[in-house]
């Protein structure tokens, strides 16, 4: 357990020293969402209709932006091999990095979401569903993204490649996350979609660190 | 000749049916040709690197 | 059984021997399938002549999923048992599977317009097949993204296995969700729901596409084996020329 906490603390420490980068991710998220009223026109009906999808797409992209560096610096300066040699399992290390990623990317997005909902005039019914879906869904984004981040270590054009790999795997989270908010806005219960999102998270929790650790191991061969 | 034309006309759906079959043919034949050329090029390169007389 | 084929030279001879049979079978099956499908079979009482697109659309879709399953299987064998040919078979399969997925999407769209009135709809079946197409592209991109082809093969193998969750989703999407796409009519409990006059050309085309896959797969695997030999020869020659530097030759068995 202490190894896990140590890695989280180390990554958070590094993130805060580069705290600017985390803020940039949130800034990208907000700006990306705000582009839509400018591009689509300020009609509140249209904006309200597309808002759930727009927020989710922006969340996916923002999550992906910081994924490339998840293992990159450790891979380049050799700390990855040191981490692999620790008595703690590599899967735990991956889980720790995923947690740090979520704390510096997913959590700020969740905090920023209500502000955006207000700016885009989303009715209050939708807000609770949006928050719940983001809370359940963003950890899955970090988990799935970690696999992609581990696979591209040492590759050419890692950033673009990462997007091509990870976005198809993100699609179920996007579909159910946006659908949860749509349902709530339409007066229906968002529970089915939230349950499926929880199912995705429960499946991702053991599988993604395992696959990510496997990818890390063969990147070090 | 009219029977043939009406056959190709496919009750008005010709614009969907024949392009579908054409694309399938083009892609499958094209993939085969590309694969074959890739194999030929590889065999040629192997022959220059390691002439057949040298191989047992 | 597989270990007999681990010897590249033996596999090359086997492949060269089998290939003409696969080619011949493909041509014969395609010819009969096309004649039956385009000429000698009836139009559907509901869909009219557009049903003839089924004879290329459904086999393409079957092959799209079949190839991905073969790809994932080969990747599993490569990762777990480190069979040298499995990785090459995976790399050879991917473009063929991607081509069939593309054809399934395009022919499906051409069938959907007259039948449903729309070129595309975001239902579960179509969306998951589109995801399958991107998984193929991602696999091929990752495979080619490293200077060391062995590393690329291993990374893409992990991706292929992770993406395999999409296959049951495709298969059962028409059962789990209300979709525009019609439910299974061939592989279902109680036997196929299609009239024999249409089932026969459909199965013939399915078989034809399968033998086509074997045909082109053999060509591509042969190419991969030779490419491996070329790389080994080039590295040996480079090491020989760089006499002063320590040989950069890989460990035995490393240069697949």
Short description:
By secondary structure, chain B is mostly helical.
What does this structure look like?
The complex is a heterotrimer of chains A (221), B (56) and C (256). Chain A is mostly helical and 221 residues long. Chain A is built from 9 helices and no strands. Chain A has one domain (2-219). The mean pLDDT of chain A is 86. The model of chain B has no long low-confidence stretch (mean pLDDT 86). Chain C has a single domain (8-177, 194-240), classed as Four Helix Bundle (Hemerythrin (Met), subunit A). Chain C contains 7 helices and no strands. Chain C has helices at 8-38, 54-80, 84-116, 124-143, 149-163, 166-176, 196-241. Chains in contact: A-C, B-C. The interface between B and C is medium-sized, with 25 and 36 residues.
The first-level CATH class of chain C is given as Mainly Alpha
Q: What percent of the residues of chain C sit in helical stretches (DSSP H or I)?
A: over 70%
Q: Give the strand content of chain C.
A: under 5%
Number of domains of chain C: 1
Find the CATH topology of chain C.
Answer: Four Helix Bundle (Hemerythrin (Met), subunit A)
Terminal residue distance of chain C: 20 Å
Mean pLDDT of chain A, as a whole number?
86
Radius of gyration of chain A: 18 Å
Number of domains of chain A: 1
- As residue ranges, the low-confidence spans of chain C are 251-256
Form type of chain C: globular
Write down how many β-strands of chain A occur, each being a DSSP E stretch of 2 or more residues: 0
Helical residue percent band of chain A: over 70%
Comma- or semicolon-separated keywords:
heterotrimer, B: 56 residues, 79% helix, rod-shaped, C: 256 residues, mainly alpha, Four Helix Bundle (Hemerythrin (Met), subunit A), disordered C terminus
How is the topology of this model organized?
The complex is a heterotrimer of chains A (221), B (56) and C (256).
Chain A (H helix, E strand, L loop, with lengths): L1 H16 L1 H22 L3 H22 L3 H9 L1 H7 L4 H30 L4 H28 L6 H28 L5 H29 L2
Helix pairs in contact in A: 1-2, 1-6, 2-3, 2-6, 3-6, 3-7, 3-8, 6-7, 6-9, 7-8, 7-9, 8-9
Chain B lengths: L1 H8 L4 H36 L7
Chain C lengths: L7 H31 L15 H27 L3 H33 L7 H20 L5 H15 L2 H11 L19 H46 L15
């Amino acid at each position: 357990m202490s190894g896990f906490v140590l890695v989280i603390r180390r990554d958070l420490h590094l993130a805060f020293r580069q705290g600017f980068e985390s803020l940039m991710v949130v800034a990208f998220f907000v700006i990306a969402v705000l582009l839509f009223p400018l591009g689509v026109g300020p009609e509140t009906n249209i904006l309200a209709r597309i808002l759930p999808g727009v927020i989710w797409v922006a969340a996916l992209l923002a999550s992906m932006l910081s994924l490339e560096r998840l293992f990159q610096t450790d891979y380049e300066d050799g700390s990855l091999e040191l981490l692999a040699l620790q008595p703690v399992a590599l899967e735990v290390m991956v889980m720790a990095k995923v947690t740090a990623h979520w704390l510096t990317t997913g959590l700020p997005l969740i905090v920023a979401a209500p502000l955006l909902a207000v700016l885009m005039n989303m009715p209050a019914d939708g807000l609770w569903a949006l928050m719940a879906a983001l809370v359940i869904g963003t950890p899955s984004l970090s988990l799935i993204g970690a696999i992609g981040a581990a696979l591209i270590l040492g590759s050419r054009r890692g950033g673009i490649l990462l997007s091509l790999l990870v976005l198809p795997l993100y699609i179920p989270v996007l579909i159910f996350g946006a659908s949860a908010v749509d349902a709530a806005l339409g007066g229906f219960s968002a529970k089915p979609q939230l349950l499926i999102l929880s199912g995705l998270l429960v499946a991702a929790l053991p599988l993604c660190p395992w696959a990510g650790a496997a990818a890390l191991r063969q990147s070090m061969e | 000749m009219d029977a043939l034309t009406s056959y190709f006309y496919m009750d008005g759906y010709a614009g969907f049916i024949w392009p579908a079959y054409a694309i399938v043919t083009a892609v499958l034949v094209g993939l085969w040709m590309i694969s074959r050329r890739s194999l030929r090029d590889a065999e040629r390169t192997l022959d220059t690197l390691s002439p057949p007389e040298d191989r047992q | 059984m597989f270990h007999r084929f681990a010897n590249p030279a033996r596999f090359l001879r086997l492949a060269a021997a089998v290939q003409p049979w696969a080619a011949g079978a493909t041509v014969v099956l395609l010819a009969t399938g096309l004649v039956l499908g385009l000429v000698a079979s009836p139009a559907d009482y509901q869909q009219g002549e557009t049903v003839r697109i089924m004879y290329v659309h459904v086999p393409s879709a079957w092959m799209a999923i079949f190839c991905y399953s073969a790809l994932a299987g080969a990747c599993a064998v490569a990762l777990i048992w480190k069979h040298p040919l499995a990785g090459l078979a995976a790399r050879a399969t991917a473009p063929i599977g991607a081509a069939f997925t593309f054809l399934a999407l395009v022919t499906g769209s051409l069938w959907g317009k007259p039948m449903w009135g729309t070129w595309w709809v975001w239902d579960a079946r179509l969306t998951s097949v589109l995801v399958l197409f991107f998984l193929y592209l991602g696999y091929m991109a990752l495979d080619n993204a490293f200077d060391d082809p062995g590393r690329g093969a291993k990374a893409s193998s992990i991706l292929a296995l992770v993406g395999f969750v999409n296959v049951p989703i495709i298969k059962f999407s028409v059962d789990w969700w209300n979709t525009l796409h019609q439910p299974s009519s061939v592989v279902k409990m109680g036997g196929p729901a299609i009239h024999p006059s249409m089932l026969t050309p459909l199965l013939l085309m399915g078989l034809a596409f399968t033998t086509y896959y074997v045909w082109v797969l053999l060509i591509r695997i042969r190419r991969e084996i030779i490419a491996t030999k070329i790389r080994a020869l080039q590295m040996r020659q480079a090491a020989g020329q760089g006499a002063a530097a320590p040989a950069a030759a890989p460990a035995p068995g490393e240069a697949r």
